[in-house]
Amino acid sequence: MVDVLSQGEIDALLAALSSGEMDAEELKKEETEKRIRSYDFKRAVRFSKDHIRSLTRIHENFARFLTTYFSAQLRTFVQISVVQVEQLPYDEFIRSIPKMTILNIFEAEPLEGRMVLEVHPNVAFAMLDRLLGGIGSAPSKVSTLTEIETTIMERIFSRAFQSLQEAWKTVLDITPRLEAMETNPQFMQIVSPNETIALISLSTKIGDTSGMINLCIPHVVVEPIMSRLSTHQWFTSEKKSRAPEEVVALKQRVSKAKLPIVAELGESSISVSEFLGLSVGDVISLNTSVKDGLSIKVGDKLKFIGSPGVLKERVAVQIDEIVSEGVEEFDE
Fold first, then answer.
1. Cα→Cα distances 85→48, 94, 198, 227, Å
2. Where is the Flagellar motor switch protein FliN-like C-terminal domain (predicted)?
3. Measured at the alpha carbon of residue 195, what is the angle toward residues 194 and 196, in degrees to the nearest 5?
């Protein structure tokens, strides 16, 4: 994108050229020289800005689902939001996380390969403390997990992957499954050190404890579905028509819906004193004739004109006319 100079900058440039502080020939020479931009092959750009925007939108939904899930499980205030979505080498991600942390290694069929949900120890131990009856505080010194603590964490994070499945439904139906849990990043090697990954950072707050949850998605895992991560493809897929079986199921559900149908004989207006004076045998005159048809309403909409009768010793109404769409009342 070309930088636009302000009027003050233009005036200063003209003044420098006039005074001889700057040489116009040198400026032309610099302009004609080839501009070289450095490229780091260790930080290869595999995800476009469009892909990053789509991943951000997907995992904003993931953050909302996680907030609901953990709030219900921990029965306390939990707030999770997306802070950043970036791409970087896998080795750089490993070096950026604590030496002792909670690493949930999982697969998500039909995608091939493994991904990682890294939970900061402050967040993980606050969850553990809350589940075991505490107030949800993180320990001052993080130690290794016992077998009981490992089992509890595996259970709660295994269920958390259902939120990831819901968030990805707009792109692909995946089935996340926890494969292993590690605490030392050096023992976790899911891809080569130079492999580009998408890192989704989630800011997490549980009561008074805060920390980060990082989702590491290697490029090689999502490469087969990269086209689906484009914004155009995403919005197009949202507008797709329903599958035939969904249409049939919807029609069956609608056909079983119950609607109130009312056949009106007519209307009449009387005073309160006349109403209080009514007794058995009194007759109330209606505003319709016995020769007129009955107004048959579905809900509060006039749909048919019919005539009263008896069918199998039960009061019935025969439909004589279908009222045109948009007609609200029967004209005398």
1. 12, 16, 7, 18
2. 252-323
3. 115
